């Protein structure tokens, strides 16, 4: 029987998502430079809850000041951020959506102009001008991820997602190419993944069994090895601390880049795992209703929607009304994006994505 995108799903922690649509974590560069929530960031996310995303994820929110990766990034590294997060969670929960904060640290990918100091990394990186963390600093980083989760809980979030994807600091630890440490956080996969596992176990311990806990991983690029990422997934499932895995594929319908792994699709590499109670979501190129159904029928528990959620704040409603719904063609005008609840900084940020925003003359 076909899985219905509109029916609810239950997470192991007890949380219920009213349908199978999650808004992807999306950096929108429209909060204040000290990490405080802005009205633009609030409005953009609130509109997605009004549009019936069953789970609204925040952008990557940094857990340390030195982990800032973007201008206007929403922060969660200080108690001064709690009041803003409380406003956000209350606004989203009013629509019956779950609300989850993505916990992030950019590591060596922090642009130098955003920091007053050198960016940090698992080990020194000349290319990025980053310095390797001391053992004590790694433990502080772990504790700051856990502290941010506690802050998220105090702010009213249903849970957190640990951002272990896209080349940011947890990826910098996971990568054998980037991580040259010789202590317990470097060397074997077990050591390179230690920080992630300590954070996950620590968040579960500190926030309790009823707190929604997910991990985002990406299996390609940024020094990742697909088989290693699958091994990390298996261990996350076996340890029983997480509710869901969010695998960022960039294209859910493609073959792995690496020849040696091309005997099945990238998606099949993950759907074949034994997830036990853990739920699976994937992100990447799930554009319209047919793609949603295809991914669910392939064995994914719920879908994660990026671009189409920018184009249509009510993408879930559109797909539930019409299973063949396709998003509006791009590029779109700035006026269109304003109508869909994007502030000016977010619109400017979206001009970086090829072919998404019309040239200025047409888009006023
Ligand atoms: C504007 C924009 C910002 C993004 N910011 C984040 C982020 O903060 N954290 C993250 O894990 N992924 C981020 N991503 C990746 C998305 O979460 C998603 O995985 C990706 O866009 C693929 O899904 P899509 O094809 O439906 O857009 C971002 C993507 C876009 C387009």
TrEMBL record:
Instruction: List the GO molecular function terms.
Output: FMN binding; oxidoreductase activity
Q: Which residues form the NADH:flavin oxidoreductase/NADH oxidase N-terminal domain?
A: 15-319
Signal peptide annotation? none
Gene3D superfamilies in the record, alphabetically?
A: Aldolase class I
| Alphabetized UniProt keyword annotations | Flavoprotein, Oxidoreductase
Alphabetized CDD domains for the sequence = OYE_like_FMN_family (cd02803)
Read off the Pfam families from this record. Answer: Oxidored_FMN (PF00724)
Protein's recorded name: NADH:flavin oxidoreductase/NADH oxidase
